[in-house]
Amino acid sequence: MTHQIKAVLFDVGGPLDTETIMDREIDEQIKLSFRNNGIAISDAEYADVNLWAVDVFAAKTYHSIMWKIADGDMDLIIRVEAELMETVPQRDELRGDFELREGMPELLAKLSEEGLLLGLAANQPAHTVVKMERFGIAKYFTYKEVSGSINLRKPDPRLLLHSCQGLGVQPEEAIMVGDRIDNDIVPARMLGMAAIRFVSGRHSEQQPRSWNEAPHADVYTVEELGESIRKFIANPPNTSGDDGPE
């Protein structure tokens, strides 16, 4: 059974905010902190740990990276994480607070003009919406709550449900757009939503573990995203029976 698409939910990191500079600088800070604490991890070793965290569907990627490198030494992890948090202002200044994806404001404006309801479904601090307002894109979203304001975090599907309820739609009437199989596509598919992965950044090589975790579409550009959304509006994917055989 198919349903009319009425809304699109967006993750922030990846589709809207490329986070390219942020991810790079976080990685460099973590490596620096470990090296300063006597752990001589090479760039190649760090890259391997990062791939491991992505492959195992680590919900909080940086926490898992720290855990793996520190071999569970919580005193060391606490020091490294403290240094990471202390350097947030420098990273925000370096990246200008928000790395807005080129072409995204125009797409959001068109989708809104075409009558689609837009909402957020993101693991972000509450002040992220203030940043979006400064960059002129918050106005396109009817639902603007994020994990930091509702105390829910993906992959908990209740965050997506909260977004749908805020827009007054059923999950089957919404499309989820995110960059992660684990945090975005999996909970969307669990709820019977159409799911589009914007292939970008740290999780671009992440793979589903079975067919019912696969996105209904992979896109690499804003133009492709717009095309996929309009394709699903015209011909919604059949999301019933997503569980398939056991």
In short:
The chain is α/β, with parallel strands linked by helices and 246 residues long. 47% of the residues lie in helices and 9% in strands.
List its salient traits.
5-stranded parallel sheet; Rossmann fold; alpha/beta; 246 residues; 2 domains; 5 strands
Plain-language structure description:
It is a single chain. This protein is an alpha/beta fold and 246 residues long. It folds into 2 domains: 148 residues, HAD superfamily/HAD-like (Rossmann fold); 76 residues. The chain is built from 11 helices and 5 strands. It has a 5-stranded parallel β-sheet with strand order 2-1-3-4-5, with helices on both faces. Helix 1 crosses helix 4 and helix 3 crosses helix 4. The model has no long low-confidence stretch (mean pLDDT 95).
What average pLDDT do the residues reach? Answer: 95
Q: What is the architecture of the largest domain at the second tier of CATH?
A: 3-Layer(aba) Sandwich
- Strand % is 5-15%
Main β-sheet, spatial strand arrangement: 2-1-3-4-5
Distance between the termini: 21 Å
Rg from alpha-carbon coordinates: 18 Å
